[in-house]
Amino acid sequence: MANRNFYHQAREQAHGLSDLMAVLARAGRVPRSVKKDFYRQIDTVVAIAPRLAAGSTLLKFDYVEAIGLDSLVDYLRQPGRGLTQWDRNDWDELIRELGLYPEANDAPEVQRRRADVAAVQDYRRRFRQAVSASLNPLIPASAHTEDAALLLDADTLAAQLADPAGRVLLVGPSVING
């Protein structure tokens, strides 16, 4: 049996969307759900890549269906639960409420800023590659925990140091090569 976690994630997203749709409906901005809740009209699908293996057994989960990614297009072509009472203007209202819009609709200064940020990120990546290419490989570091002394892999230590949520206390003599 597959882990049901993806079912929970998909259902929570559908319920969140349903809740927002209900808020819009109560405000009279879109039509109300024809069923008790909007999520009952939303086709919630988890696509498993690249496909479901032959003979797979998945648990059934209310209002969420798991299919192989290879059959997603065929699934989307079939009529679903759908919000038949919604028209294009209602969907546009939801899109505006969510703050979704195509990047092409951004103002020119926003598009320029996005391009500038991408250029700076690319420059930083190339700079790191160029500088690190001539560096010696990282060496393991010894460490003392409350329980024992141990040897840390340099990459693991570097990841810990770069993690903004992690805390690492480094204590030792400072050595400057002259």
Helix-strand blueprint:
Layout: H1 5-26, E1 44-48, E2 64-68, H2 72-77, H3 88-98, H4 108-133, E3 141-144, E4 149-152, H5 154-162
Parallel strand pairs: 1-2
Antiparallel strand pairs: 3-4
Keywords: Plasmid
Structure description:
The protein is mainly alpha-helical and 178 residues long. The chain folds into 3 domains: 97 residues, no CATH class; 31 residues; 30 residues, no CATH class. The protein contains 5 helices and 4 strands. The strands form 2 sheets. It has a two-stranded parallel sheet with strand order 1-2.
For this entry, give a set of tags.
178 residues, mainly alpha, two-stranded parallel sheet, two-stranded antiparallel sheet, 5 helices, 42% helix, plasmid
Helix/strand structural class: mainly alpha
Q: For the CA atoms, what is the radius of gyration? A: 26 Å
DSSP summary, beta strand count: 4
Largest sheet: 2 strands, parallel
With strands numbered from the N-terminus, the spatial order across the biggest sheet is 1-2
Which blocks of ≥5 consecutive residues have pLDDT under 50?
none
Instruction: Tell me the count of domains.
Output: 3
Gap between N and C termini, in Å?
A: 62 Å
Strand proportion, as a percent range, falls in: 5-15%
Keywords: Plasmid
Short description:
The protein is mainly alpha-helical.
